[in-house]
Amino acid sequence: MQTLDMKRIRNIGIAAHIDAGKTTTTERILFYTGKNYKMGETHEGAATMDWMEQERERGITITSAATTCVWGDNFINIIDTPGHVDFTVEVERSMRVLDGAVAVFCAVGGVEPQSETVWRQADKYHVPRVAFVNKMDRIGADFDNVVRGIKEKLGARPVPIQLPIGIEDSFTGMVDLVEFRGIQYADDLGTDPHVVPVPSSMEDEAKAARDAMVEILADYDEEIMSLYLDGQEVSAELVKRALRAGTVGLKIVPVICGSAFKNKGVQMLLNAVVDYLPSPVDLPPVVGTNPDTMEDVTRASSLAEPFTALAFKIMVDPFVGRLVFTRVYSGKLTKGSTVFNATNNGRERVGRILRMHANKREELEEAEAGMIVALPGLKATRTGDTLCDESNPVVLENLVFPEPVISLS
Ligand code: GDP
């Protein structure tokens, strides 16, 4: 039996204006996370090819409604969010299953009208965000302009936590303001980033930017406020804690930069996802309705609660057939068990539980609260249905997400 620490899960979407680099950024994420991951259990399909071979053959792209990547000890589930401007039910539903999002902006184009639409959707569902300013290598790239756009056009409070080192052709890395260090890339081939001192030519600018960051965080972190007022050093650990609390509490948006195309900044983006976006346990319980009593029911991300899950997307997989993509909100689902579909009053046997990776499927014995899995073999379950424990029925279709509480964990 695998028991996954829920704090290590991130369920995220990647949102972007068309052409900002969502596809390239996602591919690089899958590349960097896939490179090191060895699956422990049985798999099928393309598993005999190694990753690089696979990548050369057809490029790594997400072909699935949700893809699990492993970064360090963490499981990052990327949920495919349709990029359409219109507010389709599908967009709304996929927004519901996200706990956080990466907003990708083009460093040249900045905040464009379509980015505003996606941003408003994320606002509506209280989705915490980090912003990735991509294409820093392109002529006309302007990091500060994008930060300004996030503030002025989107009404958010952007907090740059990096500064670009160089620009356009000479963009070679970034200053990490949290740790106050430089990250330099030797070339454009995705060579492991090197940690270097902050370049001396940027020291004054970087100090001022770190102070500006600390000043914003002092607004809602008392410990930082008193250190700031005393003119004392604020540690990276404290800064991280406050950035996380501010992001999860929807007060701020950390902003980082990079060039996905030139393999720069993607590892730092993955770190930011883990450091600042919430895990399922950081968020308040979801609210559903008991179909018998019509009373509100809450379900927290906990194994102690009855099993509750939402089917958010149906896809047909070339190898496994019809797959029901499901987000488990509470309790756990066990392979071979029968679940109750509270939406259609039916019962379904869950014969297999799959975790989908970019190019592989992994068989699981169980799926616990917080996880996103694909269930083959369910016949009558449709998108939007709630699967649950029959003695504790709940319908999540009109899911209400309360305002997040700021968590300092
Ligand atoms: P999407 O429409 O948001 O999915 O954008 P894509 O990832 O398809 O990128 C759009 C175009 O921009 C493609 O031609 C990419 O090769 C290019 N692109 C993506 N990221 C970068 C980058 O960091 N730098 C440069 N110069 N081009 C990029």
TrEMBL record:
Keyword Repeat attributed: no
Subcellular location: Cytoplasm
Start and end residues of each Tr-type G domain: 7-281
Residues annotated to bind GTP: 16-23, 80-84, 134-137
GO biological process, one term: ribosome disassembly
One function term, GO molecular function aspect: GTPase activity
One GO cellular component, as annotated: cytoplasm
Function: Catalyzes the GTP-dependent ribosomal translocation step during translation elongation. During this step, the ribosome changes from the pre-translocational (PRE) to the post-translocational (POST) state as the newly formed A-site-bound peptidyl-tRNA and P-site-bound deacylated tRNA move to the P and E sites, respectively. Catalyzes the coordinated movement of the two tRNA molecules, the mRNA and conformational changes in the ribosome.
Family indicated by similarity: Belongs to the TRAFAC class translation factor GTPase superfamily. Classic translation factor GTPase family. EF-G/EF-2 subfamily.
Protein name according to UniProt: Elongation factor G
Gene name, Swiss-Prot/TrEMBL: fusA
Covered residues, full protein: 1 to 409 of 687
